[in-house]
Structure formats: C-alpha cells, structure tokens
Amino acid sequence: MSSSPGAGRYAPSPSGELHLGNLRTAILAWLYARTTGRAFRMRIDDLDRVRPGAAQRQLDDLAAIGLDWDGPVLRQSDRLAVYESTIEELTAAGRTYECFCTRREIQQAAAAPHGPMGAYPGTCRTLTDAQRAARRAEGRSPAVRLRADVTDYEITDLRHGRYRGAVDDLVLRRGDGIPAYNLTVVVDDAAQGVDQVVRGEDLLPSTPRQAYLADLLGLPRPIYAHVPLVLNTEGKRLAKRDGAVSLSDQMALGNTPGDVVAAIADSLGYAARTTAELRQVFDPARIPEKPWILEPIGLFQPDRCP
Ligand code: GLU
C-alpha cells in the first residue's frame, strides 16, 4: 500500500515583517518537513490584521534565507466559501450556536469563581429563539460558536509529549463575519495535506481545541511540534521595538541573509550558513529546550559572523 509523504507547512500572518523568531520557526518547520521526506506548504493567514505588501515581503524573506515550498501559496482570503461550508456542515449537525456576548461580558463571566481560565462560559448556549431575536433586534451581530461536548482534550506533541488543555465553545465565525483562526487552521491544514504542524510554543494551548475540531470534522489529525520562541532580554516575545529584528533591518546593518541563517543556526547549536547545510545535520532531538534570548547588540555584528 502506498502512502502519501505528507507535508509540513509555514503559515505567517501578514501583519508586518517577519522577525528573527518567525524566521527561526519557519526554518525549523522546513527542516522538520524536508528531513522527513515531506512536502513543505506555504499559507498566508490573511483574514485579519493585514498590512498591504507584507505577504509578498514575507515570502521574499523566506526565499532569501533559503526556504522553498511546494505548490501554490494558499491565501485564506481566497477560501471564505470553504470555511462557510464547514460552518454550515457543523450547523446542520447541531454543533453550532449564535453568541451575542460582547468581549466584556465574556471577560466578566469567565472571571466568575470556578470558571475555567479564559474559557467561554456558555452564556448563549441555551438561548431561546425569542431571546436570540431580541438580541438581534438590539443590533448585535452574533458570532457562531462550536457546541463542544468536552471541556478538555489531549494531544501528543513531539517536543512536549502528552499535553491536555482546555476546549470551550470556541468561536467559528466572529461577530464581524470573519472565520476564526481555530477553524481556518484546521480546514486548511487538511486541505493542503499537512500532517506535520511545526510552530511556536505560544500556540500549544490552542492545539487541543484544534485537534478536537479536526476529530469532529473527521479530518486527519497532524503530528505537532511546538518549538521554543525567541525572546528579548526581558523575557518578552520579540517585537519590532527590540531593534534590528527583521531580515531587512539586518541587511541595513550590512549583514547578509547568510549571516542571519548562521546566527539562527548557531542558536540551534549548529555551525552552518545555509539552510541546505542545516538540512544535512538537523536533528530535532537537539533543538534547545529554552527560548533563544536575543541580545540586541553583538550577535549580529558583521565581524563576529564566520
Ligand atoms: N498565522 C499564525 C501566526 O502567525 C500561525 C498559525 C499556525 O501556525 O497554526 O501566528
């Protein structure tokens, strides 16, 4: 029996330039895929917070550091009909309900004693038709939520092992009509044949929700590997204000894409200047467990690069 080789992927949100943490995660996702005989897919998560021109710059930066991908780049903005039909499928199965809560109401309700941290408390789950009509008459436009029948779910992660996390009645379509990330990621990974999801550790807590949704939809559940983030010296996630954090910032300092790859390789414990070289030596078991703390000064001085 022949089985398809599967695929890994990278899925940036085009809200600005990719920073070194994003580039490092992209390199890791590519390495995981390429060293396991998988295809590598690219997807642009462009339903929200889109900055004009950012998607193309991100793709250019990824190519400049030596990443390649297979097949067309998938853009979520082209796939609204697919998300809608998935929401319809769940609705037909009695798996959705309309939610009229404001963010504030949810925060207040979720802060109630014994409520699971940050989980939606189910306020709108049992609204009657008349109550829904009344809310609509107030001018509120509802979000659509999943009617979950679990409160937590377990996944296995290549780096974190067994991980159990909260599953609530997650949003499928937001009140402003935009399909929600947890839905689109599940639908798109399946559509692109992605069976290996490598991404930053910040997304680990969302993964039980996504795995639950994939199981509900009868979609294959990918293998997960959540990799360490890059932090600034204050232990916060890297941001633009941390200095020369993007490829173009580095190039403005006189560094080349090869210098940036070398620094990322060094942070992973390898002496390599190209992603092709890294691919020869990559061992997922050697990825450091701790985040990479990026020192603003020094690391990227041209004369310190080999
Ligand atoms: N677009 C998401 C982000 O940039 C990543 C989604 C994912 O990897 O699942 O945070």
In short:
This protein is an alpha/beta fold. The chain has helices at residues 20-34, 54-64, 80-92, 103-110, 129-137, 181-191, 207-216, 247-252, 257-267, 275-281, and strands spanning 7-10, 39-44, 74-75, 96-99, 143-146, 152-157, 161-166, 171-173, 196-200, 223-227, 230-231, 292-293. The protein contains ten helices and twelve strands.
Structural write-up:
The protein is of the alpha/beta class. The chain folds into two domains: 7-72 and 228-293, 3-Layer(aba) Sandwich (Rossmann fold); 79-184, Glutamyl-tRNA Synthetase, domain 3, CATH 3.90.800.10. The protein is 33% helix and 16% strand. The chain is built from ten helices and twelve strands. It is elongated, with a radius of gyration of 21 Å. Residues 11-13, 45, 185, 199, 203 line the site of glutamic acid.
